[in-house]
Design brief:
The protein is of the alpha/beta class. The protein has a 7-stranded parallel sheet, with helices on both faces. The chain is globular, with a radius of gyration of 17 Å. The two termini are 17 Å apart.
Length: 258
């Protein structure tokens, strides 16, 4: 593991002295696959899509079409370029583990944001079944507003209606069928902890210090197991780091891609 940061915007690696040349007209942009979290889409990565496009060719992949991580990974790999950087948040990070298992030689860089390498627990499985029951009885929006939103953001950010409505609108646009697929896929996920030592590409591990769903200790254990991984913990940030601290996430990803 490289360095641990608790900051708003961390430089994880020292930039080359001639870094300004990276933005010239002849710079080849890195293909970058972005995997959203549960019930999310390209809006989750809006800041990164805009502000990394000078060094990367970002593409947000669909992550809810099937209820199986292996099938989702196969479909993404079928559409992906021969070599690519890969970043996933939450469910997207769990899917990133499966993509790396299937095709490690194709992943040039790996970023794991606000995610968890462990298999689901009995309590976790029950909680997800309870969420499905709420969707059946009260609807998806009720689940988001009443149950999940307090787990996604810090208390300060919960007052930001733009952030809240972005989450709700993404969820409603995705719909309950995609939610069911993602719940089934994540419940049946394998334990990825033993696979981490085999990762051999530049790896960024990032989370919010106040992430209640995938807390910092889960990211610390990933960083401890992945050779050379860099760990970044953002203060005043919960589970949805790309929305709550977009500039800090983008700055860290820019260093990672460098």
């Amino acid at each position: 593991m490289n360095l641990l940061f608790e900051t708003q915007c961390a430089c994880l690696w020292e930039l080359p002295k001639n870094d300004k040349s990276r933005n010239g007209p002849n710079v080849k942009r890195i293909p970058l696959l972005l995997l959203p979290g549960t019930l999310c889409d390209e809006r989750l990565w809006a800041h990164q899509l805009e502000h990394l496009s000078d060094i990367a060719d970002p593409l947000v992949m669909p992550v809810g079409t099937d209820a199986s991580l292996p099938v989702l990974a196969e479909k993404i790999l079928a559409k992906a370029p021969a070599k690519f950087a890969l970043a996933g948040l939450s469910f997207g990070g769990i899917l990133a583990f499966e993509i790396y298992r299937q095709a490690p030689e194709r992943v040039s860089h790996l970023a794991l944001l606000d995610t968890n390498a462990r298999a689901d627990t009995e309590a976790g499985v029950q909680a997800k079944h309870d969420q499905l029951a709420v969707v059946d009885s009260e609807g998806l929006e009720a689940l988001l507003r009443d149950k999940l939103m307090p787990l996604y953001f810090t208390s300060a950010s919960l007052k930001n209606q733009t952030l809240v409505e972005t989450i709700v609108n993404m969820a409603l646009d995705n719909g309950s069928d995609i939610f069911r697929n993602q719940v089934e896929a994540v419940i049946n996920r394998p334990d990825s902890l033993e696979d981490l030592a085999e990762i051999r590409c530049p790896t960024l591990i990032l989370c919010g210090k106040q992430d209640q769903l995938c807390p910092p200790d889960r990211h610390q254990e990933m960083a401890d197991r992945i050779p050379g991984a860099a760990l970044c913990i953002l203060d005043n940030c919960g589970h949805m780091s790309t929305l709550e601290q977009p500039e800090a996430v983008t700055a860290s990803m820019r260093q990672w891609l460098g």
